[in-house]
Amino acid sequence: MHEPLDYLADEFGKDLIDYAIERVMTIPIEVPSWGFGRGGTRFAAYSTGDEPSTPEEKIIAAGKFHKLTGKGATVALHFPWDGTTKKDVRGLKKHLRKAEINAGSVNANLFTPRDKGPLDATLRFGSLTHPDPKIRAASVKHCLDCFDYMRILDSHTFVLWLPDGTNSPGQMSMYDQADRLEESTKIINAAAGKGDRILIEYKLFEPGFYSTAIQDYARSLYLSWILGDRAMVLVDLGHHAHGVNVEQIIAHLLRQGKLGGFHFNDSYYADDDLASGSLHPHQLFRIFVNLVEGELRGYMPVHDLALMIDQSHNIKDPFEELIESVENIETAYAKSLLIDFNALKKAQDSLDPSMADRILMNAFNTDVRPILAAARREQGCFENPLDEWRLRKK
Ligand code: RM4
Ligand code: MN
Ligand code: MN
């Protein structure tokens, strides 16, 4: 073992450190194709010209990312951003094969107006909850097209993030909004294939600033209950009101077998889409503590969740911000794996919160970088992907 690993083995036991290395090495983290491009704000997108912009360029970048970090074996795709026809999707499949990576989740962008067809500027009034049944049907059809794309791409994860909402109290009856949503999602659910999972994302606000059709985890959870086994809740870390205890939501969802996965990102205000763990590393740690505890209790294993990064990279180099995010996620995970959950439970049940918190903080304060480095070495990747990436760019 390398020297820093010996120190860790002395403190936590060699078996636990080896286990943590193996888990960090094998945790699947999905990256979004759009995350390799340059994001923007409603003011401007400041492209430097060297970031990938076409779907092919993004897939090539994702392939490089996978070779450097060992993560991003699957890439989240968004339609129509990544293509508008089956032919486009077959092209994507070829690019993916060449880059030696696979398609991950397929995301239906119901907010992108099209030049042709009914899905034009009227989408500002909604998609699956639009007052016009023709627009609702066309929006459902876009989701069904995405199922066809999934067949081509051999993907089994469909992500539904609904941009629908309103900007004023009179715009739409809350009752109509709810009825239409349930009617449309039932049609989509019935068309899904065997083995598919449908992940339903919620978001407090934006683009609607008065109401959002799927505004919180209660709404996603209710929908996933009425749709049945294949539907689960997707937690995007930037989609809650301030002060919401996200890790408690995680525990509730896991207990009900309804946690489908994550969109990792960090935020200071709302849906900021900043690098995961760059602002609230302790929150990310607490989330992983609850995931690992859930797995130990027999709920969904952490590695079976859809663990996806969903970020917009506006300032930093997108590729570098994805490396940073992957490292921060791995760090939070590695720390959570160092917890002695038996000792923690003992402290909790013997009414000793000071000791319980000490166990948590001891894990959180441990420098786990040697674990991350060992995981990458074992996978044949680079211990320091950022340095390697910068060397290659020169
Ligand atoms: C939303 C949400 C979705 C993402 C879109 C682009 O805020 O997070 O997951 O696909 O943005
Ligand atoms: Mn998201
Ligand atoms: Mn978001």
Description:
It is a single chain. The protein is of the alpha/beta class. The protein contains 14 helices and ten strands. The strands form two sheets. Strands 1-2-3-4-6-8-9-10 form an eight-stranded parallel β-sheet. The longest helix is centred in the middle third of the chain and has 21 residues, at 133-153. It is globular. It starts with a helix and ends with a helix. The model has no long low-confidence stretch (mean pLDDT 97).
Provide the fold topology:
Layout (H helix, E strand, L loop, with lengths): L2 H10 L1 H13 L4 E2 L22 H15 L4 E6 L6 H14 L2 E7 L24 H21 L3 E5 L3 E2 L7 H18 L5 E5 L9 E2 L4 H11 L3 E6 L9 H10 L3 E6 L16 H16 L9 E4 L8 H20 L3 H9 L3 H12 L4 H10 L6 H9 L1
Parallel strand pairs: 1-2, 2-3, 3-4, 4-6, 6-8, 8-9, 9-10
Antiparallel strand pairs: 5-7
Bound molecules: beta-L-rhamnopyranose and manganese (II) ion (2 copies).
Which percent bin holds the helix content? 40-55%
End-to-end distance, in Å?
A: 33 Å
Name the bound molecules: beta-L-rhamnopyranose, manganese (II) ion
Round the Cα radius of gyration to an integer and report it.
Answer: 21 Å
Principal-axes shape call: globular
Helix-strand pattern:
HHEHEHEHEEHEEHEHEHEHHHHH
SSE class = alpha/beta
User: How is the largest sheet built, in terms of strand order?
Assistant: 1-2-3-4-6-8-9-10
E-strand count: 10
Mean of pLDDT? 97
How would a crystallographer describe the biggest sheet? 8 strands, parallel
Percentage of β-strand residues: 5-15%
Sequence stretches where pLDDT stays below 50 over 5 or more residues: none
Count of DSSP helices? 14
